[in-house]
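Entry 14. Ran structure prediction on the chain below.
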Amino acid sequence: MALSLRKVTSATKSCLFVRQLTSIRWKTVLSSFDHKSLSDRNYFQRVIGSDVPHKMCQNVSLQHFSISSQPESICWEGSCHAVLLRKLEIALKDHQLDEAWETFKDFKRLYGFPSHSLVSRLITELSYSSHSHWLQKACDLVNLILKEKSDLIHSYSLDKLSLSLSRGQMPIPASMILRLMLEKGNVPQLNVLRLIILHMVKTEIGTHLASNYLVQICDHFLLLSARKSNHAKLIKPDTMIFNLVLDACVTFGSSFKGQQIIELMPQVGVSADAHSITIIAQIHEMNGQRDDLKKFKGHIDQVPVQLVRHYRQFYDSLLSLHFKFNDIDGAARLVLDLCRIRESPSIQKDRNDSPKTFLVPIGSYHLREGLKIQIVPELVQKDSVFKMDGKQELVLVSNEKYVLSNKALAKLIIAYKRDGQIGELSRLMLDLQKELGTLERGGFICDVINACIRVGWLETAHDILDDMELAGASIGSSTYMSLLTAYYEGKMIREAKALLKQMRKTGLIADLSDEMVMTTCLSDVLDKNRMHTRTSTSIGKSGLAECLVREIKKQEKAIRPVVYEFNSSIYFFCKAKMIDDALRIYRRFQEMKIQPTVQTFIILAYGYSCLNMYREITILWGDIKRSMESGSLVLCRDLYEFLVLNFLRGGYFERVMEVIRYMKEQNMYCDKWMYKSEFLKFHKGLYRNLKASNTRTEAQSERLEYVEAFRKWAGVN
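Output, structure tokens:
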């Protein structure tokens, strides 16, 4: 086979040389013709019959050449065509990509594209390569073919190419192939598309492109559905694809993009399974949308005990939002619900029951035009690639039961102390100890008291001790001794004497004098570390003091609860298209001298966009820039991209290029394809034939300059 290929290669080189020489010969002949000689058939035959190229062609001793005896025909044309095709076929069969590519280039230069099957084989062969060089060649070839002769490519070949590109961590060319297919109305088969998306979302840029591509698929599906086209069902994405993209949005912090994709699910008729719900919970947590997440709770509380571990993340996100809103009562109720949930008879269901579906509103219940997402809380995909554990911060699972982490309990202690509700904290701990059925003396209540002592909250620790005594709860002597030691070390003699009286009253130091107790407290250093060595029951709070210290430091930099409340109100009004009410809440930020967050600006921009108020978004952009320049705000990609799209729709090209410049300065990837599509959708013929010299006003001249700058940057022809 190698010898045959060398012969074909040699023949091809000779053939190409003959063709070049013939081309020169033809030019010489034609330039020497005059009108008379053209009418002289003998002269014409003498010239064409020149034996120089003819003999050269005869020297190529291959059966693929058939030299005609008729001087009027060009004998080497058909033979060279056959030789190149044969050479390309052999190279593809032997998987020799270098040889195949060079042969294809030669054939393309001489005759254009080869047959449909050969082009598909070449693309497929390039797709099987693990080298990015050949994958990029395949991508470039597809782009060229679709521009010149789009009917040459099978969608099957493009499926394999896009999968290979995504596997090779080349999300940009992979998305280009997917979008080229979508422009022709095609989407890879669902099983292939899942794999493509799975590989794309491993990187931040890939997630960005995959989410934008999913939005484009949904838009195309809705367009076809409106036309009642049967093709719509062929491109409809499924729950798994939504889950892959949404999970990646959580991983890379694209919470606003995630929210947009969540709202697409009910529009295209895709249900949310158990994995979807936990991912949606995390996105709502990131966006501060507590009201939306609370609507799921009643349905999640009813799931079978087998799914307790799966929904840990859901409750973790909901509890986190209660803390962010400083809703301590809500947090306490949720904590008690988690302890009771395993005992509820309503969750003991027959495993053979089919999963029930429910509709959950997106936005307020009172919105007339609000969306409702269909959820199936008990549906868990068997072949899921998602991990159930996720981040473990506030809610843990032990023996198929929900328990609180040190961090969650620390947040509760800090919140109750900040609000001066130590009595409520004591009642909650008593209720928790009762629900948990703790038998050891004091249980985790001793851990809470000892943690307060270690961080210097002696008054709080003493108040909890008093509450426990009044409730008849037993507290170990080591806890009393730890507090007494702290009093003596802090020279708080009056408080120490009061605690000694309590200890005598409870019979803990009946046989010891005050001096002996004080000596013991000051000399026994080990008592201070006793909270580290003792074993706690139920919740396990050995590191509670350390968590308290960390959470106290975080509180200093945390976003104020009023910000979450304001953002939640603005979100409600924007969803209801009550923009004036949303602006009144926004102005309260300025009145109270509170810095708005990125979420604030995203919600307002969204509200304006729903009403096509693009000019108002330019004014909002001014507020955003001032916040950035003061160093109090760092924008995310989601907001930058949303601004670009809305400025494109509104025709504010100076603002478009300004935002793009900011993105470049922060090394953010810009999805030119999407921006280009948006431009062509709204401004396809804008200033196409207008020159700068023909503009009528200075404003028009400046606008033309920015339009041309965008065309050049985005590659709009």
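Residues 1-8, 15-77, 525-541 have pLDDT under 50 and may be disordered. Will compare against last week's run tomorrow.
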